Amino acid sequence: MYKHKRKVILSSFLAISVALFISNPTKLNAKMSNDSKLDAYLKFTRVLTLIESQYVEEVNSTALVDKALKGLLANLDAHSAYMDAKSFKDLNIQTKGEFGGLGIVVSMKKGALTIIAPIDDTPAAKAGVKSGDIILKIDKKSTLGMSIDESVKLMRGKPKTKITLTLVRKGESKPIKVDIIRDIIKIQSVKSKVAYLNKDKKDKVIYIQISSFDSKVVDGVKKVLKDNSSAKGIVFDLRNNPGGLLNQATGLLDLFIDKGVLVSQKGRVKSENIEYKAHENGTKKDIPIVVLVNGGSASASEIVSGAMQDTHRAAIIGEKTFGKGSVQVIVPIGREEGIKLTVARYYLPSGRTIQNKGVTPDVTVYPGEATKKKDNEFSIKESELKQHLKTELEKLDHKKDSNTTKVEDRKDNKKSKKIITEKDILQDAQLKSALDILKVLIIQKGK
């Protein structure tokens, strides 16, 4: 009688459970999910208690939780991280345009600490560090299993102190060691020169190099455009630009694209689904543009080059970009700590993502010197022959005043800093290709 009754009750319970599952599977799934969460939290607490009570050395509970959080965030992706008080305090240093260290931007690529790019005119760039180098050791400490934040802490230090990086470089048979002297990093994010596409200097174009997207970029570019209002075209050099502030990337795009979505971001939380749109007012939509990129172009650089490509606003020249297209937010935990968490991914106007894919240029050009056909020896035009012979005689007779020469040289050197010379172009095959393509775009526009 009891056994039979128990079977009836059990059968009834199963029937009710099945009925509940069929009628409202969401509630049952939610209950199961909550139970799983509770089990996970209890497991974490048990392990924490076990370590505190039995580990060979006494361990502080706060230190244990901090270590657990570091591991938790680091295992989500390469860009999420737990920030202790010091890291949280130093958070905005890089975007202000001045900070201490080596002058490189790093990321995790396939589990390896990889240099996205050395920043121009910094200790790392002067020491010969290259985009794509993998950092194997920082001084004598291995980077295997090290987080980005930990590596950055080790590389930053007092100015004028030495640090040694052991690098694995493509094309090198064994690791190489590079000694770098730390310094205060002052970034001039926007530099410009002019170039002339014809010898008569009629077709003037602007070359604008953006080394990083800090808070000064849009204003800097606006000033360059204002100072060179007669220019017929622009070359933006985003090579080895590791990214920076999103509002500067969209602000730059808004100067040249008059309508549509510039970039969007999408995540699990609806509030993270945002579209950044162009505005028509003040847009320079007709001036031809070429953008230079390479493997060191990342994040904001990829947003700019990718959006220009998708909207057919510019020709993209160079090599495939790095492929960093995720969105991080900083969430404070208490007063002095916080976490950096990936909450969304960026999408270009066409809907494609750059995360782990990068931007493929319209024309692939590898770095190196440009080739130029050598003229025949002593190939001088008849109109120039007399002046040439006169100059040679002056050299032989020492008639040219040395002081005058030095003054003229200084003037020429000062002037050359503002102008891209033929020598500059021939030393940079990618830049030469960019200028050649820009010349074609200008000709097409004039038809």
Question: Can you describe what's shown?
Answer:
- With 447 residues, this protein is an alpha+beta fold.
- Among the domains are: 98-186, Pdz3 Domain; 190-364, 2-enoyl-CoA Hydratase, Chain A, domain 1 (Alpha-Beta Complex).
- Helix content is 38%, strand content 23%.
- The chain has 13 helices and 19 strands.
- The strands form five sheets. The protein has a six-stranded mixed beta sheet with strand order 10-11-12-15-16-19, sandwiched between helices. Strands 1, 13, 14, 17 and 18 form a five-stranded antiparallel beta sheet that branches. The chain has a four-stranded antiparallel beta sheet with strand order 6-5-7-8.
- 30% of the residues are buried.
- Residues 1-23, 375-380 and 404-411 have low confidence and may be disordered.
What does the secondary structure layout of this molecule look like, with pairings?
Blueprint: H1 2-23, H2 25-54, H3 61-74, E1 81-83, H4 85-89, E2 98-101, E3 104-109, E4 112-118, H5 123-127, E5 134-138, E6 141-142, H6 148-155, E7 162-168, E8 176-181, E9 183-186, E10 190-196, E11 204-210, H7 217-227, E12 233-237, H8 246-254, E13 261-267, E14 274-277, E15 289-293, H9 300-310, E16 315-318, E17 326-333, E18 337-347, E19 363-364, H10 382-397, H11 402-416, H12 422-426, H13 429-446
Parallel strand pairs: 11-12, 12-15, 15-16, 16-19
Antiparallel strand pairs: 1-18, 2-9, 3-4, 5-6, 5-7, 7-8, 10-11, 13-14, 13-18, 17-18
